Structure formats: C-alpha cells, structure tokens
Amino acid sequence: MKIQAAVLETVGATRPYSVSLPLRVDELDLAAPGLNEVLIRIKAAGLCHSDLSVINGDRPRPTPMALGHEAAGIVEALGEGVTDLAVGDHVVLVFVPSCGHCQPCAQGRPALCEPGAAANGAGTLLGGARRLTRAGQTIHHHLGCSAFASHAVVSRRSVIKVDRELPFEHAALFGCAVLTGVGAVINTAQVRAGSTVAVVGLGGVGLASVLGAVAAGARQVIAVDLADDKLALAQSLGATQTFNAGSTGVIEAIREASTGGVDTAIEMAGSTRAFEIAYRITRRGGTTVTAGLPPPDATWAMPVVNLVAEERTIKGSYVGTSVPMRDLPRYVDLFRAGRLPVDRLLSGSLTLDNINHGFDLLHQGKAARQVVLL
Questions:
Q1: Which of 66, 112, 215, 338 could be cross-linked to 104 through a Cys-Cys bond (beta carbons 3.0 to 4.6 Å apart)?
Q2: What pLDDT is stored for residue 346 in this prediction?
Q3: What is the CATH code for 190-316?
Q4: Burial class (CB in 10 A: 0-12, 13-18, 19+), 228
Q5: Quick one: pLDDT at residue 7?
Q6: 27 sits in which H/E element
Q7: What is the pLDDT of residue 306?
Q8: Domain formed by 2-177+322-373, architecture
Q9: How confident is the model at residue 83 (pLDDT cuts 50, 70, 90)?
Q10: Helix axes 272-280, 250-257, angle to 10 degrees
Q11: Per-residue DSSP letters for 203-265?
C-alpha cells in the first residue's frame, strides 16, 4: 500500500531544521504484515529527544530511515500468527520489541531484549524484515515503529492494546515518555512514599518523572532545568521546589534544601553536566538514576571513593526498566483516576508537513511534548 511518511535521508543537518529539512515527507510503499506482524493506522505520534538525537547524529542509525517511535493507532490488518488482537483495536507502540525468550526477557527485563536491540540497531522489525521501500529502495525502520507516517507495519511484540476511550494524543505519550519517565521512578529507583526525589532535565520524559514521583508519594520533589517555563510547569505538576541549573551554587542550594541531598536523583537531560548535578545532589547512601542518552563518546570522571565511603548507587534506566504489558495498563489506570495527569505534558500538536519545525522547537527547549496528529 502507499503511505506518507517522514524520512530522514542523512544525519547532521544544519539548524534550523525548518530550513534544512532533514525530514522529508514522501510517499513510500508499505508491504503487508508478515508472520507475527500487525498493520497499524497511526493516529498520533510524539516528538522525542531520541528522534532528535538520530537527526543530529548523536545516536547513529542507518539511513534512509522512516522516523518516529512514540505513537498510538488502530489495528487495520493482522499477519499470520497474530491471534490476540483484532482489527479495530486501539494500540500504543513500544520502541523495544521483546522476543520473550532471550536471557533478559526470561529474567523479566524485556527492555533489554537482545534480539530487540539488534533489530533496532539494524533498522529492521523484530523478525529481521524491512517492510518499507521507495521506488525499489529499502527504507529502514526506526526502533521497530517508524511512526511519523500514516501507517506502519510493526511486530506484534511492539504494541500494547489500550482502552478505546483513551484519546490518541494522550495514548501516544505512554509508549515512551510515560514508560521511561514514570518507570525510572517506580521500577528503576523504586521510590518509596515519604522519600525525597530530584529530577534533572524537564523534557517530556523528565516531566513524566515528576508526575511519577508525585504519584509514588515522595514528600519532596525537586525539579531542575535551565528553562524557567519548564520549572514553572513542573511546579504546577506537583514539584515542591524548583532550581535553575544555570544559577550559581545550584548544587549547594539543592543540598541545603534537601538537608544534605535527596534520596534519589534522576537525570533526564542526556548531558554529563546534568548527570554531575544529579550525582552531587544525591545524599550519602542514595541512588542516582540516569535515563538520558548523551552522545556515545560522552564520559564522566566518577569519584569512585564516594561509591564506597558513602554507599552510593548509580543505575541506568532504559524504557524505565519497564515490563510494558504490565506497566502501561497500570499507568493508564492512574491517568484515568487523575493521579498521573499525562495530558498536561502536551505542549502542542502539528501536522506531518510541519514536523521539521516541531523539531526546531524541541531543540530550542520550547516544547515539552508535541504530537503529530494523523
């Protein structure tokens, strides 16, 4: 079938993207779903820094590639072997498909699925196929989703069925921002009621972590960012205190406000400076979690003695250490109960034709979460 999709031809385009146009909306051929695959009509797709890091070259991926990984849509066709979905079902896409039988999957850690990671790196679906072409040229899939498109064929392992009453523009955010941000709080850090939490970096994922910390019952939720408007939004979402990361003496100020440091600091900015702040504001015996994705060559000189003398813990968090089949429905229930106001993360919507401008806004820090409505 013929579809419209945003294709990244090469990486490292100059900014502004609204001028250089790294993403080109083009007509592609989409093959029918194969074994254990599903055809989805995409209804909403979120713009994420993970997409931006592919566009600017920080996360190397094969090109040309149809971008987009955070989305929701409707099942339109089922491939052979798919018996637990029906045409018309509403689904959320998950950007790490889990095979269910590799060692991480067997240990209950599907976010670390080895075949899923290999397929994502190669630009294929979980089964190894590519279903997109343009005039005979193969187009790579982005994280098994390629969701900036009118339709997508994905692995059955890349979708979670959701309630049909959930608006698509809200549902899309659960596939990345919420799974990653809330999951980092609940699953990776295992924040307990009455504890103290700081979130460094307030993009869509970081703001979701603020929501997660509030929902978990943290008594102090400190939000840290360079943008005052994002700090204000975090406060409106339940952050008890906010600090501008660029202010003089910010680390000392946060440590004083939290009586020696927070129990858990979560870094969501994807920079070594942000991680350094997060580490240094964590108290003795505390945990520093990082879910930001800096460039592959980024390093940080860690004061190793503190790990021993202060019994510190540093944890990485990918997809919020989530089990999507378990966690995504739980987070949707919290949203519907008013305890996880995910809809407040939305800062605007746009059409596919305006996607390059949307990434300009994201790069400039002028948007938390934008969605393409299709």
A1: 112
A2: 96
A3: 3.40.50.720
A4: exposed
A5: 98
A6: strand 23-30
A7: 86
A8: Alpha-Beta Complex (3.90)
A9: very high
A10: 40
A11: SHHHHHHHHHHHHTT-SEEEEEES-HHHHHHHHHTT-SEEEETTSTTHHHHHHHHTTS-EEEE
